[in-house]
Design goal:
The protein has about 350 residues and is of the alpha/beta class. The chain is about 50% helix and about 15% strand. It has one domain: TIM Barrel (Alpha-Beta Barrel), CATH 3.20.20.140. The longest helix is centred in the middle third of the chain and has 22 residues. The radius of gyration is 19 Å and the shape is globular.
Length: about 350
């Protein structure tokens, strides 16, 4: 049961995948709309066996039952198989913001898997227009703001990452030119996917070019592999925020560095357990990182696929790790400080705490 304090606590979420927010009801509705195989332009990736028919809500929910990281990746593909037109992306964006607002989440920075969309042979511009319609309509209706992080897929390789970066730069410049306000909803880039296949060093030039273009830098690191992936993200990619950083705990010197440099850590407790990247709550480093003085934030990663919510992650911190209300307030403050909002807006949100 979630406490009233956690429900009402103003907070932000910084590690959240748009596609992973699609709930079973929405997935069932999308499968009814798109019940024929995706018209792939490439033979590298085939439709999943169930992509030719409508899924019931129970069948859609069953797709989210898996036991390891590879199973999660397959579930993720099952969802993206049904995301095909701008209206689909408008719908899932709007519903995501609605759910976040109901949990006291005032701001979110959301990954969208542009790398997967390109790999499927789709054009992204029209889909982005749908995302933006959903974002703007939801912000007006619910008050929660949202910024986009364009995510490349590391195991697709650096050339595919370059395409994602080019699109991020193009759409960011287009928005900046159109708004005249110096603001864009495209705030950064990231690389997700399978660390076991592709290390951070492959993407050095992609991240250097992104930084030069004014994009902020997030890296999934230390989720499925050891501390070297985190060190590479920091030293080679110049990461400003780290997603997961789970295995930094294996290297005390690295943890000390993360504390010293106050590198924001996007921790995702339930995600790490569901993918078996962390075998038990007792093994999770949340409490150790926080007590050491690291800039820790709590996040859901893929909330529907992991059957969690942001308030549930805060409740886990309290129930399983003994976080007091004041410590939870510190986690919420960290989420605002580590965000890529303008400093004035950060101060406004921090003042609410």
């Amino acid at each position: 049961m979630t406490s009233d304090f956690i429900q009402r606590l103003p907070k932000a979420e910084l590690h959240l995948h748009l596609e992973g927010s699609v709930d079973p009801l929405t997935l069932s509705q999308l499968s009814e709309k798109h019940h024929t195989p995706f018209p792939w332009s490439s033979n590298r990736y085939k439709p999943l066996p169930d992509s030719h028919r409508t899924l019931s809500v129970d069948e859609a929910a069953a797709l989210y039952n898996y036991t390891d990281f590879t199973g999660f990746l397959m579930a993720f593909k099952a969802v993206t198989e049904r995301l095909r037109d701008p209206e689909d992306f408008e719908l899932i964006t709007y519903r995501l913001v609605e759910k976040l607002a109901a949990q006291g989440c005032l701001h979110a920075e959301v990954f969208v898997s542009v790398g997967v969309i390109f790999w499927r042979g789709q054009e992204f511009d029209a889909l982005f227009e749908g995302m933006e319609r959903g974002r703007l309509r939801a912000e007006k209706d619910f008050g929660t703001s949202l910024l986009w992080i364009f995510d490349a897929v590391r195991h697709f390789g650096p050339e595919e990452g370059e395409k994602v970066l080019a699109k991020a730069i193009q759409l960011r410049r287009r928005q900046l030119g159109a708004s005249g306000s110096g603001a864009s909803s495209v705030v950064g880039i990231g690389i997700g996917g399978d660390e076991r296949i592709a290390g951070p060093e492959l993407f050095e030039h992609v991240y250097a070019a992104a930084s030069k273009a004014g994009l902020r830098l997030s890296v999934h690191a230390g989720e499925t592999v050891g501390p070297a992936s985190i060190t590479g993200a920091l030293d080679v990619l110049k990461a400003e925020r780290l997603g997961h950083a789970l295995h930094a705990a294996e290297d005390p010197a690295l943890v000390a560095r993360l504390v010293r440099e106050q590198v924001p850590l996007e921790l995702c407790i339930t995600s790490n357990l569901r993918t078996s990247c962390c075998l038990s709550l007792a093994d999770h480093p949340l409490r150790a990182y926080f007590d050491a003085g690291a800039l820790v934030t709590l996040n859901t990663d893929d909330p529907e696929m992991f059957q969690t919510t942001l308030v549930h992650e805060y409740q886990i911190a309290q129930d399983a790790f003994g976080f007091t209300n004041n410590e939870l307030r510190q986690l919420a403050a960290n989420s605002f400080r580590a965000s890529w909002l303008p400093e004035e807006r950060k101060r406004e949100l921090l003042n609410l705490l």
